[in-house]
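Researcher: Going back to the complex we discussed earlier. I've cleaned up the inputs and rechecked each line, so this should be the final set. Can you rerun the prediction on the complete assembly and write out the structure?
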Amino acid sequence: MAKADIHAVAKAAGVSISTVSRTFTRPELVSAKTRAKVLEVADRLDFNISRSATALKSGQTYRVALLMNEEITSWFNTQTFAGIESVMHPAGYDISLFQHIDTPETRHKFFTDLPIRRNVDAVFVASFAIDPHEAEQLQRIHVPIVGINTPPSDGLDATVCIDDEKGMATATQYLINLGHRRIVYTCSEAAAMGASIDARTQGFINACRDAESKHDIDWKVLPVARGPEFADSALAALLTLDEFPDAICCQMDMMAIPLVLKLGRYGHITPRDYSIVGFDDSPYADTINLTTMRQNPYDMGRRAALKALKLINGDALDTPHETVEAQLVPRGTAAPFDQEVPFTPAA
Amino acid sequence: MAKADIHAVAKAAGVSISTVSRTFTRPELVSAKTRAKVLEVADRLDFNISRSATALKSGQTYRVALLMNEEITSWFNTQTFAGIESVMHPAGYDISLFQHIDTPETRHKFFTDLPIRRNVDAVFVASFAIDPHEAEQLQRIHVPIVGINTPPSDGLDATVCIDDEKGMATATQYLINLGHRRIVYTCSEAAAMGASIDARTQGFINACRDAESKHDIDWKVLPVARGPEFADSALAALLTLDEFPDAICCQMDMMAIPLVLKLGRYGHITPRDYSIVGFDDSPYADTINLTTMRQNPYDMGRRAALKALKLINGDALDTPHETVEAQLVPRGTAAPFDQEVPFTPAA
DNA sequence: TTGAAAGCGTTACCAC
DNA sequence: GTGGTAACGCTTTCAA
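Model: Rerun complete. Updated structure for the full complex:
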């Protein structure tokens, strides 16, 4: 049985192709009887409207691009993807994924060489900076660009961002309020392209500087090389400090969780010996009872997608740029700290 | 600047649309000089070949469907997706994702109602059984179906499956060889649709039965309700047994990891007090030093995608059905067990 | 309520 | 090496 096209269905149902088309796209314009007949025939012939033809005719592609740094397999990227998908799929759009757009070269390649221009209805950019000139290329051909956790940057039609800087400042403030004074911030070295996550470092620094007017804070930023071993690198860096800190601020849970688990093997037990807070509230954070800053990339993906849909539809946005805040989730790895009373020899 | 189509480019470059088309699809047929001219104009006009038109003309859709049970956010599904993507994206295909195809209803909806028939070039089915009749619907219109970790079932053009049953039997055998005799298998209740993962239970049972001829094995299957709380349910079930087991076999790492972490809080320390093995080698398994069975869904996705590409291309497969085996990864949570010597009062 | 026909932007065959 | 032209399968005005 060869594939049936709209003509075959029309013929078999004794109607014109116009009627077949309407039966699927605007059924209310077709009489109930005709509609039933057409549907019955279509079902029998395994017929369905061709999306390619519809797309060509309509000028839309029913496809959006999602650009991300690194792999989709990271927690943040997966959640973001799933959030976008949850809105775009029901709306009839597929997501064309472009991973590892994390160097100026790959990014440039995307914006110029790849057959994207005119071939997606919108572009999502997750977690990295974009060049205003590149944004302009898309705008010239009326392709909306929406950013998710993008650094402040020109040329995006809409953005949904978490306030990384403020979030990390909150986490740091929390540790200071608990009485911690010797605090280390562990993080991966900053990415080449201004990933939004690097703003967290500044949040930590700000909070420490602010507190210095009131307390004697001993703080330190401990960057380690990016890569699969970053948690072990941080572990090593911590264990080779002159003095082990009484609190650790982690750039992300994926750093904090291994640290909690492995520091225990070296005799550093949280919250008994030190406090630690993460950032993300990603898988297993609750299992190990990690105090952390929660963000919800799934929801950010949803919001971004809703904006994209409006933009595709030509509607204006009431709030093109949204900022959401990370929430402190107090759990068991951060506890009040009794400041050591320096030993005073008998007077 | 209005969107330029192929005619605009042809005109501006002083050539015919045929030449413009060839410049992009078969550049070797166009003289270097003409080609350069066309490309220059195309770039200036932001022109690119329309995928929709190409798709319509070619009869292909450059789109494949991926059906999965549950959410893409699970480790297995994300890895599978990423593996398929790593092959299909460079080949010019987008993935249209259908999640939660895990009840007969949603599955039926997919195969009949949704505008899929004739709108994808191939279908991937991950981790659940499919009805031969439904498979036949696709085959009738020449859409290849490729299964990943699908239970043995008719009608799939190709499959890449892990041997779940054998894998879990291996894990169980390992525990028995270590000297464990009181073994519990923790798992989620079987899915309605015959998820491939349920075969693992049988592997456990087989290994125990086999060993009974040689040893006095006290084994038990402990199913708990599916859902987000399944790990805690398993924990509760374990803690309320008459006697705590000396070994635990887990259906998956996502069950094993919380168990290792939380059982410790109740005084059951591995490997001191009991052994435990997981299945998957998913994130943090290495961090907590979990002995587990490794599978590689990313690679299975890749293999499945390679097969799909061949099938789309009309080529026959040398090995349509592949089975891979899970590898035992011995780490720190399973250790030799000294069988308790029953206490004998002084004679 | 239905049908006829134009056209969406390509590709590929056939001339030249 | 290049150009003209007929499809590909649909949507949508316009008429009936």
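Model: Worth noting: Residues 5-7, 17-18, 21-22, 25, 49-50, 52-58 of chain B lie near DNA strand C (CB under 10 Å from a C1').
Researcher: Good, that matches what I expected from the previous run.
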